[in-house]
Design goal:
The chain is mainly alpha-helical. The chain is 79% helix and 1% strand.
Length: 392
């Protein structure tokens, strides 16, 4: 009897430690590559601000995002304490860096380099999944075996795309993205486990990575015109918009973690897949598009923005707020009306952005973000188990 109680107490302690696990230094080191990859997605679109350029940017972001998602699930599911595991993640980091370097030319001269590097990243990921699951419980091992083939089909199609011309090249990228995002829906994710504190912290960090790209682009856009007072003002406005996006997201993190803690079994895995692996993508995409529009705005503060640059600026902010609405709905089944109104207001700035100097567009977007945040801090609405605006 005493031994049984001791075993139960030990199991409870292990579960508590597992649920309280936080992101380690290895994951932070690994994510540095994705800081660079995000900037490369922005540069890909900056080099060709057209519908084709935007489309290619989205496809590149889908590939980079799913590579990151696969490793987020890997390090969430298994602790990478062994030397060989850490070495393999560093090798994958090197391969991802090569893919990021080739990314701006991934649809032209660098197509094969990007495809092969991405395939190497996924091969390491699939191998580590299979190796780690072979020593674990049967349910998890079965889930990994179901999902593993889908990890490789997408990058294999991107490699194949290097040998065909446009538009067939882009079409194969679309199919690759459909395979990546569709595999967890078709194969199912029952058997996968999720550590709430780790999973939510890891996805919060990727939002920080994306917001960091905004800061980088603001700085790059201002470098050549530092003596212009308007440029400095535009940089400040860009930082304020980024800060309101940051506060919007992280103001509800405690409630999101509690929601995940209260969800168990396959429902927890589905919540993690839907709210984080899927619905965090448009959050990141909105920030990336805003970064592009902000850089163009800082470079041309005295001129109205070209239509597509204006769409990136205003649509990026709108997409972020709309994705926040979708994320919170999936997470808490509550409609966050303030974020929905902010998304609509940001879209309505588009006709202004193509008609007035860019610095005025940044001013209006700043006002929208500040007013929304001020309302939230005043009203303190309850979203799920959390109080909006509470940033830890």
């Amino acid at each position: 009897m005493k031994d049984g109680l001791q075993d139960e107490a030990r199991d409870f302690g292990n579960r508590r430690d597992q649920n309280g696990r936080s992101v380690g230094h290895l994951e932070l080191f690994f994510d540095l590559v994705f800081v660079y990859a995000m900037s490369q997605v922005t540069h890909l679109m900056l080099e060709d601000i057209s519908w084709q350029g935007f489309g290619r940017g989205v496809l590149a972001l889908l590939a980079v995002w799913w590579a990151w998602v696969c490793y987020a699930w890997l390090t969430n599911t298994f602790e990478t304490a062994r030397v060989i595991q850490r070495t393999l993640i560093i090798v994958a980091m090197a391969a991802m860096l090569i893919a990021a370097i080739a990314l701006p030319t991934a649809f032209t001269t660098g197509a094969l380099v990007f495809g092969l590097a991405l395939l190497a990243v996924r091969l390491i990921n699939a191998g580590m999944f299979l190796d780690s699951s072979s020593r674990d419980e049967d349910g998890l091992a079965s889930a990994i075996r179901r999902l593993a083939p889908g990890l490789l089909v997408g990058p294999a199609l991107i490699v194949a795309a290097a040998f065909v011309a446009s538009p067939y090249r882009e079409l194969l990228w679309v199919v690759a993205a459909a395979v990546d995002f569709g595999s967890p829906l078709i194969a199912g994710i029952s058997g996968l486990r999720v550590v709430p504190s780790y999973f939510i912290e890891r996805h919060g960090l990727v939002i920080i990575i994306a917001l960091g790209e905004t800061i980088v682009e603001l700085g790059a856009g201002a470098t050549e015109n530092l003596r212009h007072p308007g440029v400095l003002g535009a940089v400040v406005l860009g930082v304020l918009i980024s800060a309101t996006l940051w506060w919007t997201y992280f103001g509800l993190t405690p409630g999101a973690e509690e929601r995940m803690q209260r969800t168990s079994g396959v429902d927890r895995a589905r919540l993690a897949r839907d709210a984080y692996s899927y619905l965090h993508l448009p959050l990141v995409a909105g920030i990336v598009f805003f970064a592009l529009g902000a850089r163009v705005s800082v470079e041309h503060i005295d001129e109205p923005l070209a239509p597509l640059a204006a769409l990136a600026l205003t649509g990026g902010v709108a997409l972020f707020y709309a994705a926040e609405v979708a994320y919170r709905w999936r997470d808490h089944h509550q409609l966050t009306v303030d974020r929905l109104l902010a998304a609509a207001a940001a879209l309505l700035v588009y006709p202004v952005a193509v008609s007035v100097p860019a610095v005025l567009s940044l001013t209006v977007l700043t006002a929208i973000g500040v007013l929304r945040l001020a309302w939230e801090l005043w009203r303190r609405p309850q979203i799920g188990a959390g109080t909006a605006g509470t940033v830890q």
